[in-house]
Amino acid sequence: MKKIIALLLAAAMMIVAAGCGGGQSASSGSGSSSGSGGKQITMGFSQIGAESEWRTANTESIKQAAKDAGINLQFSDAQQKQENQIKAIRSFIAQGVDIIAFVPIVETGWDTVLKEAKDAKIPVIVVDRDVKLSDDSLYVAKIGTDSVKEGNNVFKWIDEYMAKEKKTPRDGGSQYNVVILEGTVGSSVAIRRQEGFKDAMAKAADAGKYNILASQTGEFTRQKGQEVMESFLKSYGPKIDILFAHNDDMALGAIQAIEKAGLKPGKDITIISIDGVKGMFQAMIDGKANCTVECNPLQGPLLMETAKKILAGEKVEKLVYVDEGVFPADVAAKTLPERKY
Ligand code: AHR
């Protein structure tokens, strides 16, 4: 009888130990989320890097949301290289994670690796930026922002502002001259923000009032934004009326270049960019910038919720856009204290 009891106790202890130690390294969240097999969910996440204030907020949101959801996040930083993202995704597949999420640095070149994930029966969620694939069934859901709409909103705001302020072109001509700092070459956000801007401009009743003088990549960084703006100023100094930067960081770099050139950013040159980071709000409060069109980086909670639903076998929307607003300088002081990034 004693032997039977000892055997039963040993078996019970083994079951408890297996339940506690199953899966991979546990997240530090309060509770842990389980997939359909009952073990903690492991998500492999490939981030593109840390090129901007926005990206830092995006990474923090994803890490915090994973903790809160009790999801074990395997985080990989690609240092702005697609090849590193592909390597990371392959390593997630080899580890047998439950789900993969990634921010595609550029639109194309994902078919092969996503097919490998599909063959391994690991669902994929695309985050923030878009992908162009031959087969859209290679990912289950996309969570992000509407870049075409952001570009549209930039032009609409400029057009209303120039009319309201009764601005006259700096070179005495009949057109407002625009320079554009573009984001990472080949990224969906850079392509679509530009498309949205040009589209809205072409459709405007007063389209002829605008002339795009120059448009070049500033790679979404402050440093490059400053350098490219310096070269724009050298080539076209007194002609430039408007700067559209595809993100706030490049606009903040450009502001430094404009000041160095002895001009007043936000006054001599109207400045609008996309993101809505605190640094841009401060620049608007200081009178050095005019508007930011929001691109919401706080995508973590929706990502984790979507991952859980997918793994629970629930149907999810293929495409979900997060909410975004437009913030001109006159609301900056009131809004800054409420900003979360
Ligand atoms: O993909 C979103 C863009 O990437 C943000 O506008 C920019 O700041 C970031 O680096």
From TrEMBL:
Annotated compartments: Cell envelope
Protein family according to the UniProt entry: Belongs to the bacterial solute-binding protein 2 family.
InterPro entries for this protein: Peripla_BP_I, SBP_2_dom
Keywords from the named record: Signal, Sugar transport, Transport
MF GO annotations: carbohydrate binding
Record-given protein name: Simple sugar transport system substrate-binding protein
A GO term from the CC aspect: cell envelope
Chief location category: other
Annotated signal sequence range: 1-18
Domain Periplasmic binding protein: 44-315
Recorded superkingdom: Bacteria
